[in-house]
Specification:
Blueprint: H1 2-17, H2 21-47, E1 58-59, H3 80-85, H4 94-99, H5 113-124, E2 135-136, H6 146-174, H7 178-193, H8 203-219, H9 221-226, H10 244-276, H11 281-304, H12 319-337, H13 339-351, H14 356-369, H15 376-400, H16 406-426, H17 437-466, H18 474-489, H19 492-503, H20 507-516, H21 518-530, H22 534-540, E3 545-546, E4 552-553
Antiparallel strand pairs: 1-2, 3-4
Helix pairs in contact: 2-8, 2-10, 2-11, 2-14, 6-8, 6-12, 6-14, 6-18, 6-19, 7-8, 7-11, 10-11, 10-15, 10-17, 12-13, 13-17, 13-18, 13-21, 14-20, 15-17, 16-17, 16-20, 16-21, 19-20
Length: about 575
């Protein structure tokens, strides 16, 4: 009864908040947060130690030619304690011993290892560890479990590159919200469908649904981000000198806070499910909950938001011709009419491989199969720290965006993530082994460096581009932006990362190198970012800002808050 009374009291204030455009836009983050965290939770039960893919692997030889000794046989759960009773410590390679890492090899040339393997197999029938270096889908020459989803993500991003211009063009030519409704509906249903998880390759059904969600949920960002162009500046109170760029950055930050808040709530529910249910039931339950969450709340907020009018006419052309024909023309137009926007896209292509989504894409594979060898609770703790601290970090971003230029904030993001990469590559090189100093130190890195690096990146990367293009062409270039952004995501978190993991004899070493090489992209991104002149780009795009005296200028520089980048 008290709960009903509380909801009744809160309803009017909630309705009042969602009556304003800024909070309607922010609420899209609360609705779509289920997609972001749902995918991370789902992948834990896909590729983790309790996941559904590892048991379907077969034993095989590693890239250095060392055989599992049971090539072609089904992998098994590894009993480390039992193996040590058979003198299994003799199978720890010298490089692992010197690094203080517990990793077992099947290399019979190591003194005592051959006898230990034979004795253990004779006693238990052991073949190879499903979560070890000798297990592959398809056996020798196949893929390790952790790289299956990252490879599919790259394929999905390639398809988004093709579909992005189509979606952007449909929105430009037709206006309204119909296509957005359809994409959100497919995403919500697909997210629920990805809950089909089971061994014996039943997981293929779930991963197919997840692949569809990867594409459609990304495409929903095209109509959603176009609404940022409707953000208005506040010319009174503490935001009286706010520029359009600052207003857009602030509202995008609000959305990110709402997204993190919804993800935090869902992680709490997931933790309760972990303690109450056995694997993979928590993953199945949470993807169902996330699917319903996304479907209901995203549909609601699309209904609340105003319909944007069509911005262009097709002039008798077919949709495909009207979409892909102008794509190269639009890119050429960017270089000729809006060169700063074109430079920014070049920066984005490179930076995407070392920041944001690439960090998220490799997070679970690295934590589960890489050097940390994290368990489910440890991974969820990483999620919680990222989300809990991500919210105040996003609030800090909203404040900083009024004082620092886009360029300065982007340089800070690169520095934060690059520092975290270096620490993960050279400091955190061994297993967590519980909740001691190593694990707590890793959480500190996540909270201080990764959390702001992620949330600030997602808050800024679209607004920084949007202010460099004309208002009338936002939807048109939103498709180009999505194409370019997802093109950048194809490379490192997919084929490059998978190549490291699958080609190295030690999966942990492959994951470590896969993370470290992200640093290359961040270093390369810095000069490209410095090449972009944001103030010049705003002027070329005809972006205007109303000042407190009611005048309108063609630059967003104010005496109180200079924005020259």
């Amino acid at each position: 009864m008290r709960l009903l009374l509380l909801s009744h009291l809160l309803a009017p204030s909630s309705a009042a908040c969602l009556a304003t455009f800024e909070w309607q836009y922010a609420f899209t983050g609360f609705a779509s947060g289920a997609d972001a965290i749902g995918g991370l939770i789902w992948s834990l039960y896909l590729i983790g130690a309790d996941g559904v893919i590892p048991p379907d692997q077969q034993c095989g030889a590693t890239s250095d030619g060392v055989s599992s000794g049971a090539d072609g046989a089904a992998c098994m759960t590894f009993n480390e304690t039992g193996f040590l009773l058979h003198n299994g410590s003799t199978c720890i390679p010298p490089d692992a011993l010197s690094a203080g890492v517990t990793r077992y090899t099947h290399d019979r040339s190591l003194p005592g290892c051959s006898a230990a393997l034979d004795s253990f197999r004779s006693a238990t029938g052991f073949t190879c560890d499903c979560n070890g270096d000798y297990a592959f889908l398809g056996g020798t020459g196949g893929m390790r479990a952790a790289t299956v989803w990252t490879s599919l993500q790259s394929l999905g991003n390639a398809l988004i590159c093709v579909l992005g211009p189509l979606v952007g063009s449909v929105i430009d030519y037709q206006g309204g919200k119909k296509l957005w409704w359809i994409l959100a509906l497919v995403s919500g249903v697909g997210l629920a469908g990805s809950s089909v998880l089971g061994t014996g390759y039943v997981w293929v059904v779930g991963i197919t649904f997840a692949f569809i969600v990867l594409i459609t949920s990304e495409l929903t960002t095209i109509p959603r981000t176009a609404y940022l162009d409707d953000v208005e500046t506040h010319l009174s109170g503490w935001r009286k000198d706010e520029t359009t760029s600052q207003a857009i950055a602030r509202v995008a930050g609000y959305r990110q806070i709402m997204s993190y808040f919804s993800q935090f709530l869902l992680v709490i529910v997931a933790l309760a499910a972990i303690f109450a249910l056995s694997a993979p039931l928590p993953g199945i339950l949470m993807t169902l909950i996330c699917g319903v969450w996304y479907l209901v709340l995203y549909s609601y907020i699309i209904h609340k938001l105003h319909a944007r009018p069509a911005k262009r006419e097709r002039n008798g052309k077919g949709l495909i011709a009207a979409s892909f024909g102008p794509l190269l023309r639009d890119i050429r137009c960017l270089f000729s009419n809006h060169p700063e926007a074109a430079k920014y896209l070049l920066f984005l292509v490179v930076a995407q491989n070392g920041l944001g989504t690439t960090v998220l894409n490799v997070a679970n594979p690295y934590l589960l199969e890489g050097p940390p060898k994290a368990d489910t609770i440890q991974v969820f703790s990483v999620f919680l720290v990222t989300l809990l601290l991500g919210m105040p970090w996003t609030y800090a971003y909203c404040k900083l965006s009024a004082r620092l230029s886009f360029r300065a904030i982007l340089l800070i993001i690169i520095a934060l993530v690059s520092t975290a990469i270096l620490l993960m590559g050279f400091v955190f090189t061994s297993e967590f082994e519980g909740y001691g100093a190593t694990y707590l130190g890793f959480l500190a890195v996540v909270g201080i460096l990764i959390a702001p690096g992620l949330t600030w990146w997602y808050s800024i990367y679209w607004p920084a581009f949007m202010v460099l293009i004309p208002e009338a062409q936002v939807n048109q270039y939103a498709g180009v932006f999505t194409t370019v952004r997802t093109f950048g995501l194809i490379w490192h978190s997919g084929p490059i990362y998978a190549a490291f993991v699958n080609s190295m004899p030690s999966a942990a070493t492959g994951h470590r190198l896969g993370v470290l090489t992200m640093l290359f992209w961040n270093v390369l991104a810095v000069p490209l970012l410095l090449w972009v002149d944001f103030d010049k780009g705003r002027k070329e795009a005809g972006r205007t800002v109303a000042t407190k005296d009611g005048k309108v200028t063609t630059t967003e520089v104010t005496t109180a808050q200079p924005q020259a980048a």
